[in-house]
Write a structure and sequence with these properties.
- The protein is built from 20 helices and 4 strands.
- The protein has 440 residues and is mostly helical.
- The strands form 2 sheets. The chain has a two-stranded antiparallel sheet with strand order 1-2.
- The protein starts with 5 loop residues before the first helix and ends with a helix.
Amino acid sequence: MKEPLAYMRKAQGSWEKRILKSLNSMCTELGIPLAQKRPVSEQKELLNKWNEMGTDEPDLSLFRPVYAPKDFLEVLMNLRNPNYENGEQPSFRNHLGLIQVPLKVKDIPELKEDFSELGLNIGQLGIDDSAQVPPEFFENEHVRVGQKVLAEQDSAAAQQYVRQGCPTALRADLWALILNISNQPEDILYYEQLKSNVIQHNLLVDSLIYKDVKLTASNDDYYFVFEDYLYQVLLCFSRDTSVLEHFTYSSATPPKSYIRGKLGMEEYAVFYPPNGVIPFHGFSMYVAPLCFLYHEPSKLYQIFREMYVRFFFRLHSISSHPSGIVSLCLLFETLLQTHLPQLFYHLREIGAQPLRISFKWMVRAFSGYLATDQLLLLWDRILGYNSLEILAVLAAAVFAFRAVNLMEVTSLAAAEAVLADLSTLKVMPLLQIFLFATVT
């Protein structure tokens, strides 16, 4: 269903205009067309080095990301529901965070119920010292059940199963089962068609993709080895018109471009880029962790596309959906304000609103912040619960875990320094302690 709240639709519309303005001004400044056919020599060259595009060093110094997460956060902070302008809703008036829209978010008792399989007395992968059951016994049994679920090819059972985490050896197959990806010959053919579209036409967004990979994944200790995969997947993704289908239930609208001289004439309009998604700073990090699981480009591609149209698009569009980024921000702030009020007030007083730090984690679903094994355990749960709410819970749990140090900081920079490195964190104990050991 499209976004029901008019003010959210309006805000998303004006945000899209800003992105397009940024893209168009870059076009004009650099004198580069949005799309052009590649000369035959260039097509041949690209085809030859398709598997080692990372070695290509085009000059990207003039390109800049269309926007970064912090630009997006500024927009979300200015969101207001015009019906509540006069503060008619007393319960909402005491929300002291940056997000000022009255959406209903869950409290800890509701989250406990929703995430009951993360309970302290239930076996989990990713927890070393579960008191009830020796970890190796639980793991062996869990692997056996996982193999059975795979043998039966039952998608719903797989989704239920991964709520307790995926054994590493089964994860790729279980995720594919949950996402209904089978990589049939026609899927491989479709991927090859997208690839030939990349070879034939050069799009301005290609340079944005290159630039993003260079700025993020290429500098990441875990992901730099996958640079070529990232280019392949993201360049094909930008040409995939099947991605447009998700706009029927996204609050966003795909941008249009008009054939030169025909501005405003609908019969001369095309979606640009063809998939309707303009990449932003950090976009390639949605793909990077999947490269650990899938080495077959067409399968990797399909898994990413399905993850995007089910989940990731919600992290960069303005909506009232419970898994949308606005609700996640509000859930995060509400959890902190309710359960760690002293910490929340302290950070707010020193000008270090917690959301300014956690926003970038949530927008990227923690990709690039957690160690990969921990990130995949987190994404198991996103798939298992078919929800992104766990991102907000984890962000709050990280603040709870580092609360003692954070109570001593006196500036935003110092608070950021305390939370600069999340690569040693263990996701599952953090979530369990926060949800099930917090006194409510």
